[in-house]
Amino acid sequence: MPDKSLDVVAVGNAIVDILTQSDDAFLSRHALKKGAMTLMEAAQAEALYAAMGPGVEVSGGSAANTIAGIASLGGRTAFIGKVRDDQLGTVYQHDLRALGVEFPTKAATQGPGTGRCYILVTPDAQRTMNTYLGAAVELGPSDIDPALVARAKVLYLEGYLWDRPDAKDALRKAADAAHKAGTKVAFSLSDAFCVHRWRDEFRKLIQSRVDILFANETEITALYEVNSFDDAVPLVRKDVEVAALTRSELGAVIVHGDKTEKIAAERVAKVVDTTGAGDLYAAGFLSGYVQGKDLANCGRMGAVAAAEIISHFGARPETPLKDLMKKKLGATA
Amino acid sequence: MPDKSLDVVAVGNAIVDILTQSDDAFLSRHALKKGAMTLMEAAQAEALYAAMGPGVEVSGGSAANTIAGIASLGGRTAFIGKVRDDQLGTVYQHDLRALGVEFPTKAATQGPGTGRCYILVTPDAQRTMNTYLGAAVELGPSDIDPALVARAKVLYLEGYLWDRPDAKDALRKAADAAHKAGTKVAFSLSDAFCVHRWRDEFRKLIQSRVDILFANETEITALYEVNSFDDAVPLVRKDVEVAALTRSELGAVIVHGDKTEKIAAERVAKVVDTTGAGDLYAAGFLSGYVQGKDLANCGRMGAVAAAEIISHFGARPETPLKDLMKKKLGATA
């Protein structure tokens, strides 16, 4: 890894999560896609909020959750994403800065409020996400500072950003700045429906600009339009340097050149809410990666971080992950 | 119990809790009173927020937590308390109304924002609360509708309100309306420091207007200025019809006329955050009371509700308490 003053800089949607307990009957009554992330307009989101149960608010956003996890593991991080200068935006900025994350993006002073994700958690601990992007849509290329990107060992991008043309340009600008500066580009496929919307562009991006790919089983099979996980592995092997492919309780498969590492999932006493499982897996993995750990240890760190996040409501760690990692993995972490 | 369309109506400070993990070193560095509720001005609260870790936001307020618990147990409830028409106020209104709570108090359209309580949870699961009352201070007698109070079997008041002269007048107005309508008046001492501030007025209020008193050990000994819990029991017995006195892991003592019931605490696998333990105890107890249960069963319901709330972050139930109560207590609940 080149000598850099930051471990990871991420670009993502800045979103406050509003989580509530729900059930399958509510999901079908409101025609919500279980397990998916669905974009909503303001009026639609308000109607859903009015119908849903009491909530817990926690800062979220996929890439930001990953950054919060890396910071909680002691990493040096920065985040680029757009909030509005309102109460939820203030909370959002606080929650990243309190972890020592550099968060230079200026809050919007007009336009829609800070973005929100209404998350319905069912008794099986599955989360169904309904996002009103709000101010997050204002993120554009002018928010990307190539000098900030150049300071990091890894640039981390979330697939969700692809839903907005301006954000797409911002991502390309960030990826180009990364490659000029010897910064690795990591990308998360985010969501199977997001992959369906942007399959061709995602494939081009991955082949031309991505070094490290994060995906779960449904996302990677959607990307390559194959029927089984095993069929996707040789395809992703050709496209990227490293792929970390997660399979929930089946653990994860790390693909690197002609090597393949299988890592068991970490046991969890009670799975409460799977929101952020993939984000925190990426946090653990990348923390190991920037420290130069071997890929099996990176995978184990991902598993431990993911296990913490699914044991409680919300996608931000409730325990300093650095301490947890030492307890679980000892000297290897 | 008279035939009424509501079980419990409560008056309290409408406050959004912002909870974070902290440690004793942080508390002493910021000269915070561990375990207490301390009032803060806006600038002081902002400085504390800037120094504290990332948070989780959950609607709170002592009496409102009790009302949320009663609603979660299937009770018919109403809440009187003041928010501002801002994002946190919208969240606050949502969280009560989503439980079926009547919440008729109009949000303030000017003045300070919705009140916040910055809660530092230490590794011993103790919570240290620092409150910026914000819009909650605007609550006054004009917010009390005697007809609403008259519809309830029980009026529940929190001691915290005593810190504001206008709120004090509102409480007296509500208590008078209750007595005219055959509505029992329940009162929570809230906090030992609050008792120290208002001891004489609390004693007068309790002797003249309170039927059911909730207090923990430090609060009841502070009220009567006695050195031991056992010395407080005969004194409170003379002052109120029913007193429910909680002693954390030692369980609770219910005093009623010449009877005394001792109820064991409910076992909890892991105590995460004691915020709201007393509030939810009152919720369980009053739910039993309005259903005409005997006081031992009221006490058991209080213990079960308190055990749920201390097993996670935040003072609002994460599980429908009605289902939990059936599982734990069966036909008696």
Quick tags:
homodimer; 333 residues; UDP-N-acetylmuramoyl-L-alanine:D-glutamate ligase; five-stranded mixed sheet; 12 helices; 40% helix; globular
Task: Give a description of the structure.
2 copies of one chain form a homodimer. Chain A has a single domain, classed as UDP-N-acetylmuramoyl-L-alanine:D-glutamate ligase (3-Layer(aba) Sandwich), CATH 3.40.1190. In chain A, the strands form 2 sheets. Chain A has an 8-stranded mixed β-sheet, with helices on both faces. In chain A, helix 11 (295-309) crosses helix 12. Chain A is 40% helix and 21% strand. Chain A is globular and about 50 Å long. By secondary structure, the first copy, chain A, is an alpha/beta fold. The first copy, chain A, has helices spanning 24-29, 42-51, 62-72, 87-97, 146-150, 165-180, 192-209, 217-224, 229-239, 277-290, 295-309, 321-329, and strands at residues 6-11, 15-21, 37-39, 56-59, 77-80, 115-121, 127-132, 152-158, 184-188, 212-216, 242-246, 252-256, 259-263. In chain A, helix 7 (192-209) links the parallel strand 9 (184-188) and strand 10 (212-216). Chain A is built from 12 helices and 13 strands. Chain A binds chain B through residues 18, 20-21, 49-50, 52-59, 68, 86-88, 91, 94-96, 98-99, 113-114, 312-314, 316, 318-320, and chain B through 18, 20-21, 49-50, 52-59, 68, 86-88, 91, 94-96, 98-99, 113, 312-314, 316, 318-320.
